[in-house]
Amino acid sequence: MPEQIVILDFGAQYTQVIARRVRECNVYSTILRYDTPAKQIAAMAPKGLILSGGPASVYAPDAPLPDRGIFKLGVPILGICFGVQILGQFLGGKVEKGAKREFGKGTLTVKSRRCPLFRNLPAQLQVWNSHGDKLTRLPRGFVAVATSDNSDYAAIEHPQKKFFGVQFHPEVAHTPRGKEILANFVRGVCGCGREWTMRNYIDQAIEAIRTQVGRERVILGLSGGVDSSVAAALLHKAIGDQLTCIFVNNGLLRAREAEVVREVFGRHFRIKLQYEDARALFLKRLKGVTEPERKRKVIGRTFIEVFDAAMKRVGHAKFLAQGTLYPDVIESVPIAGNPAALIKSHHNVGGLPKRMKFKLVEPLKCLFKDEVRELGLELGLPKEIVYRQPFPGPGLAVRCLGEVTPAKLQVLRRADAIVVEEMKACGLYYKTWQTFAVLLPVRSVGVQGDERTYDWTLAIRAVESQDGMTADWVKLPYDLLEKISLRITNEVRGLNRVVLDLTSKPPGTIEWE
Ligand code: XMP
Questions:
Q1: pTM for the predicted model, two decimal places
Q2: What is the Cα–Cα distance from 468 to 505, expressed in whole angstroms?
Q3: CB 330 within 8 A of CB 338
Q4: Nearest alpha carbon, ligand 1 atom 6
């Protein structure tokens, strides 16, 4: 087990961001619920604790409070926002509702130049606040090390115990030097080295996979997406031919997607790949289906059927591998007012039913998405796969409105390839959450050459997002849009009009169906 920092989650929107920032300092971090028993934390031998922010008030009757034993573990503690109020409440200070709430940008003035949290940082720092309560009396043994316009105790320190508290949020991008403050805590105060790197993780993961799997066989459903691809490459490095990947071509993939998977995994990595060409079956099942939810159900059911049959052909395997990530396994803290509690992962059409009795191998389940990408590059996967934009399980079917037919899919696939090609050519593709084409069931009159046409309409959708839960439409440059539109109407038969989707999420969803 690498050296680690334990983060106690009091229901903050930013707890995962704290964990990611710590890991960016090359120190492993684990998120635990706020009420995890101190004994359990001690057994993990953390080098330090971070108490997250949270929406509650420490003095509220139902406030989420930690086990008092955490203050006796003998390890450094950093309380952030609500976390500093926890220090106040438990260690003899006083927390009250502030006369003025502090939201947004603020200036921190560091008074104590000796405080290790602010080592190598200037005396004035831009910070980001989000709190209504504030500390009005210091807990015992603490000194104030920094102030803000609104508080004499914006940062506090107990030098002997190595307990620290900051009222602002060092983890967010709006505190530009915040990562250095966290690095000062985890490395300078807690003494962690730079052990957590994806290069080190590979060795550790390989050993864990080999121990778990022994000589048994493992099946992995490979979609070509980032997570399953990285899981495949990692498992293959660990257990070679004991791994078989099943790749289902449902006929709803984008241009060259199936070929890339076969080239990269079959030919380059030489992974045992069971390629299921189920294009005809999916299209047959989708015939006449127009209602979006029914489409999704038909595709989901057919996928399970095809995957099931493929597994039987592969033969007995004791393990099923999945590309589960850390955010999927963190136990969320159900505290009212915490938007993170509402954000759940998307319905995944590729999900397999519970009746399939396998033991699970989940080699990415302690990693965040950016770490998975880094791991993928370290394992030698191409950028095209590692930085692939998210693509929905039901594929082009949810971008081909109305009935899905082979002819419409062909038109959509060609147009989509042009959108992607041009986005890549101008360097915007990898900077955007998603960019794709949608085929609308709208025909309109056009004129191409001397001919009157009556053809389909294509919408271009480009969105920026952090997690797919909310999104902003992207203001693509006009000359890029012009080039895309020109190429599509010239090169793709069946289209005579291109429109741009100007809808954010909410109110629109990212996909059109
Ligand atoms: P919506 O359309 O709900 O999509 O705004 C949010 C994000 O989720 C993706 N998406 C899916 N991903 N299976 C998936 O794995 C699905 O069935 C599915 N439907 C939507 C979508 O591309 C966007 O990134």
A1: 0.92
A2: 9
A3: no
A4: 468
**Kind of pairing, strands 434-448 and 451-464?**
antiparallel
Q: What is the pLDDT of residues 247-272, one digit of tens each?
A: 999 999 999 999 999 999 999 999 99
Is residue 484 within 8 Å of residue 499, measured between CB atoms? no
At 345 the pLDDT is 36
Please name the amino acid found at residue 44: M
Probe target for ligand 1 pocket from 295, 345, 346, 466, with the most ligand atoms within 8 Å of CB: 346
Active-site residues, by number, are 81, 169, 171
Band (339; pLDDT cuts 50, 70, 90): very low
**Which is nearest to 395 in space by CA: 495, 315, 302, 296?**
296
In degrees, rounded to 5, the angle at the alpha carbon of residue 294 between the alpha carbons of residues 251 and 258 is 15
| Terminal Cα-to-Cα distance of the chain (whole angstroms) | 44
87 near 139, Cβ under 8 Å?
A: yes
Please state whether beta strands 94-110 and 48-51 pair in parallel, antiparallel, or not at all (unpaired): unpaired
Could you give phi then psi for residue 235, rounded to 5 degrees?
A: -65, -40
Protein residue whose Cα sits closest to atom 18 of ligand 1: 392
| Angle formed by the axes of helices 478-491 and 406-425, nearest 10° | 140
Pairing label, strands 319-321, 218-221: parallel
Whole-number pLDDT of residue 349: 40
Taking only the tens place, the pLDDT of each residue in 426-442 is 999 999 999 999 999 99
Query: What pLDDT score was predicted for residue 350?
Result: 47
| pLDDT grade for 357, boundaries at 50, 70 and 90 | confident
**Contact criterion met (CB below 8 Å) for 111 and 157:** no
Cα–Cα distance between 228 and 242 in angstroms, integer? 17
Structure token pair of residue 385: 């796969």
Least Cα distance to 291 among 405, 394, 402 occurs for 402
Query: Quick one: pLDDT at residue 218?
Result: 98
Section 311-317 average pLDDT = 94
pLDDT tier at 219, thresholds 50, 70, 90: very high
Residues 6+ apart with CB under 8 A from 22: 5, 7, 28, 29, 50, 182, 186
The pair of three-digit structure tokens given for residue 383, joined into one six-digit string: 């950028």
- In the predicted structure, residue 276 carries a pLDDT above the cut 70: yes
Task: Give CA–CA dist 449/454, Å, rounded.
Answer: 13
Q: Answer yes or no: is pLDDT of 353 > 80.
A: no
Number of Cα atoms under 13 Å in the Cβ half of residue 147: 6
Query: Which one, of 99, 198, 215, lies nearest residue 149 by Cα?
Result: 99
Q: Which residues line ligand 1 at a C-beta cut-off of 6 Å?
A: 346-349, 390, 392-394, 434, 468, 505, 509-511
Whether 178 has a pLDDT exceeding 70, the answer reads yes
